[in-house]
Amino acid sequence: MPDHLNTATLLDLARRAHARAPGPCICTKTPLDGWQSQPLSLDETQFREIGTLWPENDPEPTYAEYLPGKLKYWSTDAPIAPRYFPYNRCGVWECSLCGRLYLRYTEGGGYFVDRRIRSLQWALIEDVSL
Fold first, then answer.
1. Which domain of life does the UniProt lineage start with (predicted)?
2. Per the domain annotation, does 101 fall within a domain?
3. Domain assignment present for 130
4. Peptide bond preceding 2 in cis form (omega within 30 of 0)
């Protein structure tokens, strides 16, 4: 199982990744600034999991969302709040081609499963308590 990442570690990793690769991503044509269904064209083999935001010793993290104001789940400027859904169910993955970091989780509904992905942007990370 991957190591649990707290908010301070996540922020540090995101800042370092941004310093290595500050420009736009060329690994996919699909913008990943906000949550997206993972593009089928994205090569799974180019990612390696470096940690998880799933809370330690918590078999069922909250489904509460942190979306202040009129922000929506799909908004590109929605905060990344690791203690809230869906971030508390994410793995943190690094692209071996560009060095950028991505958040990934699987959304499951009654009749579907959807792998979702979002780029990890350090400026949007918020350490908000439940």
1. Bacteria
2. yes
3. no
4. no
Q: Is 58 left (phi over 0), alpha (psi -120 to 50) or beta?
A: beta
Give domain status of residue 129, yes or no: no
92 within domain boundaries: yes
How many independent structural domains does the chain possess?
A: 1
| DSSP-assigned letters across all residues of 27-56 | S-SS--SS-EEPPTTS-GGGEEEEEE-SPT
Domain housing 112: 7-21+30-124
pLDDT tens series, the chain, 130 aa: 689 999 999 999 999 999 988 777 778 888 899 999 999 988 989 999 999 999 888 889 999 999 999 999 999 999 999 999 999 999 999 999 889 999 999 998 778 899 999 999 999 999 998 7
